[in-house]
Design goal:
By secondary structure, this protein is α/β, with parallel strands linked by helices. The protein has 13 helices and 19 strands. The strands form four sheets. Strands 2-3-4-8-9-10-11-12 form an eight-stranded parallel barrel. Strands 1-13-14-15-19-17 form a six-stranded antiparallel β-sheet. It has a three-stranded antiparallel β-sheet with strand order 5-7-6, with no helix packed on it. A hairpin with a 3-residue loop joins strand 14 and strand 15. The longest helix is centred in the middle third of the chain and has 19 residues. It is globular, with a radius of gyration of 24 Å. The N terminus is likely disordered.
Length: 560
């Protein structure tokens, strides 16, 4: 028995369809600039390092790259506290180096996306400095959320909201005359004041920022906190403020997913389409949209809003066939039904690395169960209709670094809560490129350089030179999967149909003549298709699908 899921909701055309936009089934590689490749020997990755690594990414077979923030920043939150949205922090290079990077990206046939941060800025941004110098009710303060405190002398915060990185969401400022004054809102850290998008100046400024980078040739933007921006105009108390602190599912609905935010994305989409009409190059907006359901997610990718939004439910789904099937079904039904495509992710710079997450127990360093499951999940993701994003190092099978000493941790979550739970440094350790000792080629030509986060000795087992030389490595699995995805018409966009399968096995057909199956169980099962797999995440004998293995077969598929 088969169930069929539509790839889109449009009606078939009587004329030859126009080529699909490049982004609909693209595979984008997330470059965490600080940890990708260091060209200067200071232990910090930079734009010149990204440029040097482009041939590696072209050989891997991705369609483009997304750069984490490289803007001027005091780095209280790894660059997501932006002090100048139209510049390059000197530690990463300058605008001339950025322009060379754009030229090289396009010369290699790749796309370039920038990370843009519209919900908040740095406390060192000129706007916020002006707000501190201004008076209550001033134009400068209207660009942020300043409010008087409650209680005697206004000594209590304006409401009970908590910051997602720990602690109260409000900080009090001294007025210009030195007396205790108003409070300002920061949903992440005090160094990241939230912007007030109800002030028209904020929207106008970010349109200027978009145009600045579009004029320099970028192909689109990844939008940080895309479901945020607007807060309830009355700033009322939250019914459950504790749920807001480091929330994953129960975010503060008074400060998140407000209906007004959709007008922002319509404006941004119009800007991108203006540039597309001008030069024929379609620009992409992909949002970090953290909302509870696929149906709410779909509201962000309507035809006049964002092109795509990361679908995090696959990342958070437990390792279970029924959970994966339900998650995929909901996404394709609700998101593809808007005319967009689902944007699949298994990892990013805020998550525990896939190998460790799937291992099921702390301390497993990349071998065994976690690695097998991560390989299978990667092959499944690449077989799904839509787009996919790959975080740097996933193609190397890098595990999470779990034992970083407290004194080297930089994540504000640790410094605000005193807890190592949810910290993100472990997935941001600089990549190993070559050799047997730190810096493992990360700092080019400087063997004794010290990376900004220490690399463990076992990183040698995951270096890129070793991965490229081993045809059984994660790298070759990703590369072969990306090559087949590009060459097989059944992959990319198109229909997905579920096949009947044993318990804990997920089996589907893509288009006509391709079957993908994943064994989520602990025992081998009969393969759903006879013959040798076209590609498998692990050893896969004829007629058998081993535990924690995914495989693709070319085969005649039964009619729906």
């Amino acid at each position: 028995m088969l169930s069929t899921l539509p790839a889109d909701s449009g009606q078939p055309s009587r004329t030859a369809p126009a080529p699909a936009p490049w982004w609909r089934d693209a595979v984008i590689y997330q470059v965490y600039v600080r940890s990708f490749l260091d060209s200067t020997g200071d232990g910090i990755g930079d734009l010149a390092g990204v440029r040097a690594g482009l041939p590696y990414l072209r050989k891997l077979g991705v369609d483009g790259i997304w750069l984490s923030p490289f803007y001027p920043s005091p780095q209280h939150d790894h660059g997501y506290d932006v002090a100048d949205h139209c510049g390059v922090d000197p530690v990463y290079g300058d605008l001339a180096e950025f322009d060379r990077l754009v030229a090289d990206v396009h010369r290699l046939g790749l796309k370039l996306l920038l990370d843009i941060v519209p919900n908040h800025c740095s406390s060192e941004h000129p706007w916020f400095r002006a707000a501190l110098a201004g008076e209550p009710g001033s134009e400068q303060r209207s660009r942020f959320h300043f409010a008087p405190g409650r209680g005697p002398s206004g000594a209590e915060p304006p409401n009970n909201w908590r910051a997602m990185f720990g602690g109260p969401a409000w900080s009090r400022v001294p007025e210009p005359d030195g007396t205790p004054g108003e409070w300002y809102l920061h949903l992440f850290t005090p160094e990241q004041p939230d912007l007030n998008w109800r002030d028209p100046a904020v929207g106008d400024e970010f349109e200027r920022v978009l145009r600045f980078w579009l004029d320099r040739g970028v192909d689109g933007f990844r939008i940080d906190v895309a479901a945020g921006l607007f807060k309830h105009p009355d700033l009322p108390d939250s019914e459950d403020p504790g749920a807001d602190e480091r929330a994953r599912d129960a975010v503060n609905q008074l400060a998140w997913n407000r209906p007004e935010v959709h007008d922002v994305w319509r404006r941004w989409r119009a800007v991108c389409e203006e540039y597309g009409v001008r030069d024929g190059r379609e620009r992409l907006l992909v949002g970090e949209v953290s909302v509870p359901t696929a149906r709410e997610h779909a509201a962000y990718v309507r035809p006049d809003e964002l092109h795509q939004a990361f679908f995090f439910d696959l990342l958070s789904a437990p390792w279970d066939a029924d959970s994966f099937r339900a998650t995929i079904t909901d996404a394709i039904r609700d998101i593809a039904g808007t005319g967009s495509t689902v944007t699949w992710v298994l990892n990013n710079h805020d998550q525990v690395r896939t190998v460790t997450r799937y291992a099921g127990e702390p301390g497993v360093e990349g071998s065994g169960l976690g690695a097998a499951r991560a390989r299978a999940a990667a092959l499944l993701m690449l077989a799904l209709p839509g787009a996919a994003y790959v975080y740097q190092g996933e193609e190397l099978g890098l595990p999470e670094v779990l034992d970083l000493p407290d004194e080297v941790l930089t994540d504000p979550i640790f410094h605000r809560t005193g807890s190592r739970k949810h910290i993100r440094d472990g997935c941001r350790v600089p990549l190993p490129w070559s050799g047997h000792a730190s810096p493992f080629g990360f700092s080019q030509g400087v063997p004794g350089a010290r990376p900004w986060l220490p690399q463990p000795e076992w990183f040698a087992e995951h270096s890129t030179d070793r991965a490229l030389a081993d045809t059984r490595s994660f790298w070759h699995l990703y590369r072969e999967g990306l090559q087949l995805r590009r060459s097989l018409p059944q992959l990319g966009e198109g229909t997905l149909r579920w096949l009947d399968a044993p318990a804990q096995v997920l089996a589907m057909t893509r288009g006509d003549g391709l079957v993908c199956a994943v064994n989520f169980g602990t025992e081998p099962v009969p393969a759903p298709v006879a013959g040798t797999p076209l590609l498998a995440s692990g050893p896969c004998p004829d007629g058998v699908l081993p535990a924690a293995t995914a495989a693709w077969w070319t085969a005649a598929c039964p009619a729906p």
